[in-house]
Structure formats: C-alpha cells, structure tokens
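lol ok so funny story. i was supposed to be doing the assay writeup but got distracted and ended up predicting the structure for this chain instead. priorities right. anyway since i did it might as well share w the group, maybe its usefull for someone
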Amino acid sequence: MENDPTPHQSPDRDTSIAADNAFSALGLSAKVVRPLAVLGISQPTPIQVKAIPLVLAGHDVMGLAQTGTGKTAAFGLPLVDRLIAEGERPKPQTARSLILAPTRELVNQIADNLRNYVKKTPIWVSSVVGGQSINPQIKHLVRGTDILVATPGRLLDLVDRGAIRLDSAKYLVLDEADQMLDLGFIHALRKIAKLLGTPRQTLLFSATMPDSVADLSRAYLNDPVRVEAAPPGKAADKVAQSVYYVQAKGKVDLLKSLLHEREGDLSLVFARTKHGAEKLMKQLVADGLAAASIHGNKSQGQRDRALKAFKQGEVRILVATDVAARGIDIPGVSHVYNFNLPEVPENYVHRIGRTARAGRDGQAIAFCSPDEAKLLKQIVRLTGLEIPTAGSDGSENEYAPPPPPRRGRNRSKGNLNAEGRPKKKNNAEKSDRQAKDGGKPSQKKRPRPGGRRRKEMSEAEAALDSSSASPGSRGEEKKRKPHHAKGSRSGKPRAGKIGGPKQGGHHGKASGNRGKRSGKPR
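and the output, tada:
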C-alpha cells in the first residue's frame, strides 16, 4: 500500500523530470510540472508552497500575498492538475471551471499564464472580456471549455444570450478578491454564484483583504483555510519607496524633470481620474516624452495597443488609472509614480506592486500635495512603514516638512507655534489679559437662542414708531419713503374704509401695514 498514489499525486508522475523540480514535492503531476521546467520555473514562491497542497486536497482557500509573488500559479497549477486528473471533456457551451477578475487586462494576463501551463495537455483555456465584439466569443464557446477566465459583466451578457451555461462549473476562483467582493461587483457575483454547479471548490486570492470584505467572502467559502505569505497590505520587499511633498500645481513639472532623468527606464504613472490621466499623457508627449495612456474611456483595442507598445519599449511611459493596477504584469517596469495618491489606501499596494516583480528591484515615488496629507497617513497606517521623504534633487531628507496649519481660526503667523499649528492659550496668558482689563475676567456671555432676532425686531419696531410720529429722513444720506396702506399708492384710505392707517408702532399690523415697513427689515 505504500506505493499507492495519494490524492495529491498522479500515478503517471515522471520522476526523471520531476525529481529535480521543487513543484513535484507539492503534489503536482508530471504533466503540470513539465511545462514549468521548459519555462525555467523550478522554485515555488511562499504563497505557492502554502496554497498548492491545500487546493489539491480540495479545500476552499483564502490566499493573501504580496503582488508579483505568483498568485496566478498558486491557484492555476493545482486547478489544471485536478482537471487533468478528472479526465472529462467539457460539454458544448459549458465550462468546467470559472475564474473571475475585475479588469480586462488582468483577465488577459491570467489566461496567457494558464495557456503556458497547459501546453501539451488536453486542457482548453478561454477568456471573455467587455470592450470587444461578443460574436467571436459566442462562437468560441460553442465547443465548451475547461477553464473560462472572464470579467463579470461580459460573462452575464453571454449567459443572458444562452452562449454559456455554468451549471457544470465545479471550481470558482476570484482573483483580486477584495475588489471582486466590493460593491461594484457584488451584485454580479451573487447572480453568477447561483448559476454555478454544486458542490464546488472556491478559491480567493488577493494582496489586500479588508475586514469587511473578509467577512463578506465567508458567504462564498465553505470552511476555508486562510494562508498568508505576508501580512495583508504589505508592499513588496524590494520596492524602494519615497514621497515628494509638492504643491498640486508643481506636480507636472516635477514629474517631467524626473522622467527626463530616466528616459531609458520603463515608468508607470498613476493618475486618479480618466480625464486627468489623458491630460497628463498629452502634457508629457508635448514635452518630448514617449508616453501612452490606458483608462476606462479607452476601447479594448486602444488599451491593448498601448500595453503592447509599452511592453516592447516603443513607449517608455504609461499613464494609467487604477483600472490598470490590477492587470499589468511587466517585469521590466523600474519606476512607479503616484502622481495622485489613491483615495483607497489598498490601491497603493496594488499600484507599487507593478514594479519589483519576479525578484527584481524597483522604485515607487509618490507626490503628496497638502490636500492629500490624510491619504498619505492612511497609506502609512495600512503598510506599517514610514515612507522616506525625497528632496528636490532626488535624495532623502532627514525630516519631512511640517504639516499644513489647520483650517479655521488662529491662522495668523502670531498665533502659530514652531510646528505651524495654532498656539494653545495657557492660564498665564489669561491672567495677563485679565490684568489689562482691570483685573476682572471677561463678562462676555453667550447669546441666547433667538436673541439676535428679538433685537432686530425691537429695533424695527422702534424705527416704525419714530417714522409714524414724525416721518422724516433716516440719517442724512437717504430719505425715508412714505408709508402707504396696503393696496393704496397715494397713502389715502381705500374707498369704503373708514379712517386711515392707525398711528403708532406695531399697531400698524391691524391696519394692513404688512407690506413694506419703515425702519430696518427683519
């Protein structure tokens, strides 16, 4: 019985090839290990070491690891192994497993990696994303597929058209699970989960996992095993981080200066909005820099062409929004610039994870304007690291500049302390001020509610009394207009009315003086 294969092993294991490969020790079959040897991959990463045996054993897994540490192989390799072991073929218009990702770029990246893993195997990998014609995708799914990688929106479109059924899918993978479980995708995910086959194995992988999202994920997992290769939110170890404190209007000139110093490097620049990314790209091109942009307003074809040109080095600078932070896997990226700090601190980790991939070194440079100080504090709190301050010449300063003064009162120079914050008044200052006032404390009282309105009313009534008694001028600048009865321009009483308006202050209300009053208005 000792020679019987375990559930983690395949009887057709080629020991001559797999013996020297550390992946074989994790339980992967020779058919899966052989393509890795051709690709030059022989040593698994920490997240792969922890996750692969659990996935092969059939557990639901929640995997957390830094970006660029091989999460795709951590779920992709055991998934391929299990599909091969089952030995089934997909039925027409069905999928045996489903992988969901939030962006088109990430879907394409996952599908490309999986196609490398399944070479010389019967496993078929398909991908569907929005922004492309749906008809070729419908034709491609007619024969069925083993692994379907998709964005949620396009997948639901295909389901509605009857192009794909998901009741045969017994494996569900959520890559970048924190964003997949966010409010933007949760409704689509709930619809898709109801269409999947049961029982199923569910795998969640991400670099960050807020507590609220982790609680929500448990609705899709059955007794999951949580594995971590690094604390959630931790940036890649080989990323050298720094921050420039710069006014918003000076960011463009600073970025141009830094990019001109490193024209031979591949640089990725992150902007906060689609309009801002496109405008920034045009400013860089106008300054003689080879740049392109990708964001949500670009078609899929435009985004693919920009990424291809960036990978091939035709353009050295790519300006992007966070839509690209979850899908760009280009090992040659040496610098990441956060032109605008992200409003969600977890996105900072994903942004800077585009550099220092596959064991390389990289630099992440952030620009922080005064109105972004709170965003920077949130990032520091998440990562647990103080980001060094960079100087105008690129060197690190010993001290960060003082924080901007608080808004509100005490903004004059005399009321600020050495740190630029409002001074606190002590008891000695209070006693000195009382001595100047004759030794008596200030008798200033808080106004009673409605006191100002009552004061205005009394002043108006007093003015009305004086105007009724002696209608003259108010001051020396402006003459008072004559007070007329309502409905009468001449001030004479209306026909049929006995008597005119009564003299006196607020008794005028009884005579119809509800229009314009003399004196100060209420």
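DSSP finds 17 helices and 15 strands in the chain. The first strand starts at residue 61 and ends at 64.
back to the writeup now i swear
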